[in-house]
Structures are given as structure tokens and as C-alpha cells.
Amino acid sequence: MFKESITRLPENGNLIPAQRYDLIQKHLASYKIATYTSLAELLKVSESTVRRDLEWMEQQGILERTRGGAILNQHIRAEAEYIKRAERLIEEKSLIGKASAALLEPGDVVFMNSGTTTAQVIKHINGIPNVTVITNNTFPLTESRDLDFELVVIGGTYLPLSKAIVGPFSTDNLDRLYATKCFIGVEGISLKYGCTVSTFAEAEIIRLMIEHTQEQVIIVADHTKWGSVSNHLIARIDQIHTLVTDEGFDVNARISLLGRSVDVIVARKSKN
Fold first, then answer.
1. pLDDT score for 243
2. CATH fold of 4-72, please?
């Protein structure tokens, strides 16, 4: 059901375009995603009117149209502290990490960037022969367990807030390396704006990782990243092969990504 504070209409039921735009934006702020049908019912107008409204709002950068509806663009301008990000969606990120690690094959050399979700991928690597992980993520350095894979942590400048290593020394090292796969954590993913992160230094690292990946580019992201847009583009949708996400990821978004040849793997909770 729609919230009364959002859906209160004029007594005559007629809305001017500006009023419709405002209601659409408020609805998306609450629900993040909406279909043409639900918005038509909300506004008491035809779906063709909704389509025209969404087209105009997309041109203004307010939202992004998707298959069957729209999502709100949530611009991210500042990187959250690592510990705060690590405390969010702990179970979902763990499931994503486990499902992602299952994609590894014996002999793989993989890139992984910094972040709490890629840290979970690293945490779940177990029992796969001859795997090498090349990363700017310092999480493995704090792991108490013995690692059963080769770990290469690239040198450079340490960023305490994100527990990442970045900078010219890092990119110089990466420029000499290649991988079979890469697992990339992002702060935003969107059909229109692609995969984005908030810091230029991290974006430089990720773009080089993707450029030097010979096979699969795998994005690891929980459902809250869909529709978010951060400052720096690291990959267009057509540059990625697979998205590993959780059960909260929108069904229509999955369909849209599959239509763009992106395989979507949903990490599900065990039924036991």
C-alpha cells in the first residue's frame, strides 16, 4: 500500500505535471523502485502519461527508467567509513562472498579491489588448488586463519577509512600483472550509469584491474547498490559478465541485466 503522506491527491483528482513529478519522486524515495502500472494507479493517469513523465524526469537526472518502471538515482558523494559499511547487511555480504568464491577454478589468478563485500569473497576461498589473489584490500592481512591460496597485496598508499592501498605505486605494480578473473565491489550499479565508486584513487585501481582481466569481470554487490550512482565510472554494463547479489535484488532489474547479457547469480540462504 502507498503511504498516505505520499498519495494524497487533489479532490478533483487532476494533477499538473509538476505535482506528478513531485509525487513520483517522493514515492521512489520511499520504495526505491516503481512500475508503470503502480504509478498510473497512484497518479490516476494513463500509463502513457507516466511514461512521458518518467522520460522527462530521466532527462533531468532525477531517476532512471528500467524495464517496466523506474528507479531513483541515489548519488553518493562521500565514502563511508569501512567499519560502518562492514556492519551493514552482514549476512547478505557473507552469502555473496560464498557464492562468488564458488566461481573460482583451480589455477585462477584473480584481482579483487578493496571493500567489505570483496573481503567476504576472500574470506570464503577454501580448498581450491593453486589460486592466486592480487588485491589492494588489506582485509586478508588481518585474517587469523591460515590462507590456503597465494596472496599478493599490491604496494602503495594506505587509506585508513577504506582499508585500501592506492596510488601511483599501486597502478605501476598492477600494470605489470594480468588475471583470469576479477571480483569487483562497487558503490553503485545502474543500467544507464554503469558501475561506480566514490573515490578517484580506487577507480583508477579498478579500471586497471578490469583492463587486465582476460576472462570474467564479476561484480559483487548487495541489492542496495542497484540504482545508486557514485562519482567515478569504473565499468559500463556491457563490460561486465556476472553480478553476484542477494535475494533482495529487484526481479525486474535482474531481467534488465539478463537482457544486457549479464549473468545474475543470487546468493540464497540455506533452507536447512
1. 98
2. Arc Repressor Mutant, subunit A (1.10.10)
